[in-house]
Amino acid sequence: MKNKIIITGNKGFVGSNLSTYLNREKIIGVSRNPTENEVSYLDINKEFLDDKKVFIHLAGKAHDLKNETNKQDYFTINTKLTKELFDFFLESDCETFIYLSSVKAVADKTTKILTEKTLPNPLTGYGKSKLAAENYIRKNKLRMGKRVFILRPCMIHGPNNKGNLNLLYGLVSKRIPWILGSYENKRSYCTVDNLSFVIKELIINKKISSGIYNIADDLPLSTNELIFLISKSKNNSPLIFNVSKSFIEIIAKIGDKIPLPLNSRRLEKLTESYVVSNQKIKKAIGKSLPINSKEGLLSTFKSFQT
């Protein structure tokens, strides 16, 4: 018998991939502009949830890399909406609530490996709104038989992905040399199919305890390694130059004063490390993730060509 699963944000990047992954289940999408097979947020209440098994809340205001989003918008969508939906879940007979948060609810940058024990200190409106939603969920006592999972993925990628990886892919595809080869950073990434795999395991394995779990692929990679993978997906040789860091930093400082492609802020973003531990979730599910880091990224880059 199929589980009845509610997914908010089902038409988004993660939601569409997850719905495909869970194609043997009965998926009920929730949208502000519902189609024939979806429902509106206005339809969500205790009675509507009573005969559903799982509520997966993916909808939210994404991190605005251009910093153009009003801070209050994050709290209206990421915090207030989550509180309302979670309250309905608590009142209903629905068994499992899965909330997609973010590692940005913990830290915008880190020099240490990020674990679930890292003390949260988000600096942006996005991170603070996600953490506020997490805190609201955590403070509520659960009835017997209910489970709640807060998932903190790092940068998610896969087919139909849009974001920084697309920008880097476009740069490398145009055969523009990468002049930051002398910088060795490490970043964690999350293949969307690995995230979907984890969510499916949480649904079917009732022995997994409620809690907060980081989600990341096993192996963090450097930007240089990403460029190698992009070039491989295009059957090209990578153009990576090890320009001296001191010269690069001089150019970045000039870019702080006059419009240049590189300034100090961009240099930091392009070369910083952000490593996320996935040990807790792997121990909880008792299985390895199905897709390794390089395979997942190579598949994503190849999907950009279609």
How far apart the termini lie comes to 36 Å
**Contiguous helical run count:** 11
Q: Could you tell me the number of beta strands?
A: 9
Q: Quick check: average pLDDT?
A: 93
Q: Give the proportion of residues in helices.
A: 25-40%
Radius of gyration: 20 Å
Structural class per helix/strand content? Answer: alpha/beta
Principal-axes geometry comes out as globular
The neighbouring-strand order within the major sheet is 3-2-1-4-5-6-9
Task: Report the order of strands and helices.
Answer: EHEEHEHEHEEHEHEHHHHH
Which residues form runs of ≥5 with pLDDT under 50?
none
Percent of residues in β-strands: 5-15%
Task: Give the secondary structure arrangement, pairings included.
Layout: E1 4-8, H1 13-21, E2 26-31, E3 38-40, H2 46-49, E4 54-57, H3 71-91, E5 96-100, H4 125-139, E6 147-153, E7 155-157, H5 164-173, E8 189-191, H6 192-204, E9 211-215, H7 223-233, H8 245-255, H9 264-271, H10 279-285, H11 293-303
Parallel strand pairs: 1-2, 1-4, 2-3, 4-5, 5-6, 6-9, 7-8
Describe the structure.
By secondary structure, the protein is of the alpha/beta class. It is 39% helix and 13% strand. The longest helix has 21 residues, at 71-91. It is globular. The model has no long low-confidence stretch (mean pLDDT 93).
Structural key phrases:
13% strand; two-stranded parallel sheet; 11 helices; seven-stranded parallel sheet
